[in-house]
Amino acid sequence: MGTTLFELQSASSSDEVLAGLEAWISGHEGDLGLPDGLSPELLSIEVLEESRARHGKLELFRFYQYYQANGGRALVVGDGSTITVEVGPLGAVSVKGTILDPRQPFEHEHDPAGEEVARQAIAHHVADRTGAPASTVKVEDLGLVAVPGPNAIGWQGVAYLGGQVPVATVIVAAAPRTPAAELPLLAFERNSANGVSNTVGVQVVTEDLGSDITTAPISEAVVSSLLDSSSLLGSIEDLSGWPQLASETVVALDLQGNSLEEVQDEIDFSRYIDASGDFDVSQPGAAFDAQRHYHISQEAYALVDHLAAGSWDSAISLFDDFVPDPADPSNEIGVPKTSDYGPGQFRPRIIDANGHAPLGGPTGQAGFGLVESMTPVLEAYQSPGPGLQSEVVSFIRLPPGPMGTHVLMHELGHAFDVFLGPGFPRTHAPKCQAGLCDSTCDEDTPDEALPLTETIAQMFTLWQFQRIGGIPFEDCGIIDLVMTGAGQGSTLVQHEACMGDADQISLFLRDDDPACLDPFYCDKPSNNETDPSQGGTHLCDATAGYNVTSLLQAWWSLLHWQYCEPTFPFSCETLPAIAWPLGCDAPGSSSTCATDDELAVLPFLYALRTDPLTYEQLIDEMVTFVACNYGTEAYTWFNQVLCDHHLRSCGEPPPMICQSCGNGIREGVEQCDGLDMGGVSLGEIPTCEGEGFEGGVLMCDPMTCTYDFGQCIAAASSSSSSSDGGLDPESSGGTSTSWNETETSVGGVGDPGGCDCRTSGGDGGWSAWLLGMMLLMSRRRRMQQSLGTDHGSVPTEVPTTCEDPARGDWRS
Question: Are strands 278-279 and 203-207 parallel, antiparallel or unpaired?
Fold first, then answer.
């Protein structure tokens, strides 16, 4: 993160990023697996309009590609055809996608089949798969496309039956002088899932979220809208024409005692439908349970989607799933499936599988699977929207009977985790091969991936309780509620109303760590997994991840934007106010400022998008977001909450510092900015006296954002003193910290118009950390998943030690 692939000026336009991208591609053909001589003029890359997305001081730019064919341009589709560039304050830090070499020949590029032949061919393939007469198939939106993988030019069209119902999006090869019935099929995506887009408002009897949802019995309420005031939506079921509990985001099914793996036809499950759309069945019973699960799932989805919209990942990269290579039938490997959803368009679908067969263990399980384009029961399974290939959906297995709210929220947490990375950490957990792994649970390594997955789901659970259930900070038993079985550490909320003089907070230490004075309060996972189905007994125990109360105590405090003393009397205070996004509190601003819980959750979601495999990575990425976007003071407080629980070193500087000298806000390593004089320590008001002078007025240099001592009165002695005000985690005093003195920058310090993103650790500590991250990333292996793979098992690995360098993620 501290270096760039190519430099850019602050606030670069999409066209400027595109120019930098094209120059970078041209200068790195060998790194990308492309032949030399690829000049920017040969590339056909264009800006994908309305796709620019900002994540604080990080920004995503997306571009699409064309291929010159038959004197015109063919849109490149599939196989990573959209290029994504991640831009930091100094320039591009990563490039993702498939770089198409325009010099590479594509079949049928010079003399493609005509439009009428293509229409007939598409109608033929639709009739062959649906049984409908070809004469009833109407093809619209026909256009030439270039399909990497088979490296062929094809015709893409949307097929309708009777001219009204879209049936499929189809691509046929544009082979010239070929009868329509014989044009090869390149892609066929059925569109029956679009039925759930026929939205209609529904009403359900569900759990009253205004009541105490942490205890039994369940209080009922009739609900037709969500907490964000939007309508609770269902859709029109195709056969009956009645409203059903199914939307683009959540689908409720009754599996009638079957397992997901047994669902092969409509007779294996039923939908929840009602002629009026008023699902008014009270408890007890399966119908009430389904209404409650559907409602809570919709509330949780809306909560996360509010912050993650446009940032969801299709998770299809988790699957080493291949389709036959039409261009080379002898290729036994085939070509990989990829998502064809445009940037920011994908939204995951969650299947609430009610009435699932007994699971033989947990009361609920979350999983995900790759749904083939020809999978039966498409409307139930298929991801929303018309894509060209298969997509990933998440399943929550819900056996008969009432389920604790916290269990459902935990499984929903797994579902969200899948599509924010993509994939939760356990899918990347290293597997032992040829004796390369030892037999111990090694801390701060990917061995922690299994318990980390469960801890992440617990963090989602607490957030849902706080936001959806309105659980107050001082609800002393909320952490104990979400835990599974007996664990180590304190389960009380770190609050003066909950903890007495004999209580202690939990610490993220192993019980054999010298700093752990009482092993009961030390909860860092250290035992080995005993269940081989979890992926290997060399990994850390997955169950321990439910009970990392040190992180859960800190997380619950941060969700309420509180800092509480780590010892009796555990008094609490509100953290300094943060107006995020910047300028949201300005008069006339149209931006809504983040709530206290969102200020904590935004760093959490950002961290998940970096695919952390260890607790250290998760926490470091969270504080990276805080330091870069909220500033140094917020980082110091945030880090203090974590360091009290030994989750992070108290004196550790920010892993990334982003700053803009001259914007009036002290950020990063700036000592000051305009009238914002700040201070190295929390609560400190810097003065000339504090800097070792006799008196005077301390000013801020507008060019360097460092203290200007020009109006300070020199003291008789040259010695200096420092303030001890506030929380001072091993502060170096009132002068600027030494770890950035050897750094260089583009913009920022010394450039009032620039933005400087500096890395901490002038002694090379950041470089070592980054190298470690790269080594950990290199250990990831994609996993072959099957329909219904749950978070309680890890499927067989398909080793992929080498990948096509022209396809993937290039990161500085």
Answer: parallel
Q: In whole angstroms, give the CA distance from residue 149 to residue 170.
A: 16
DSSP state of 257: T
* Interacting residues of 599 by C-beta distance below 8 A, sequence separation 6+: 561, 578, 580, 630
**pLDDT tens, 528-582?**
887 766 656 678 998 999 999 999 999 999 999 999 999 999 999 999 999 988 7
| Number of Cβ atoms within 10 Å of the Cβ of 54 | 10
State the Cα–Cα distance between residues 653 and 669, nearest whole angstrom: 10
Q: What one-character-per-residue DSSP string does 681-717 give?
A: STT----TGGGT-SEE--EE-TTT-SEE-TTEEPPSS
Burial of 771 per CB tally in 10 Å (0-12, 13-18, 19+): exposed
What φ, ψ does residue 462 adopt, rounded to 5°? Answer: -65, -40
Rounded Cα–Cα distance for residues 649 and 759 (Å): 17
Contacts with 15 (C-beta within 8 Å, 6 or more apart), sequence order? 47
What order of strands is seen across the sheet that includes strand 278-279?
Answer: 220-223, 203-207, 278-279
What residues contact residue 332 under an 8 Å CB cut-off, 6+ apart? none
pLDDT tens digit sequence for 165-223:
456 778 999 998 888 888 888 887 654 333 455 788 999 999 999 999 988 899 999 99
CA distance 306 to 468: 13
The DSSP symbol for 745 reads -
DSSP string, 88-114: -SSEEEEEEEE---TTS--BTSSSPPP
Question: What distance in Å separates the CA atoms of residue 150 and residue 515, rounded to the nearest whole number?
Answer: 59
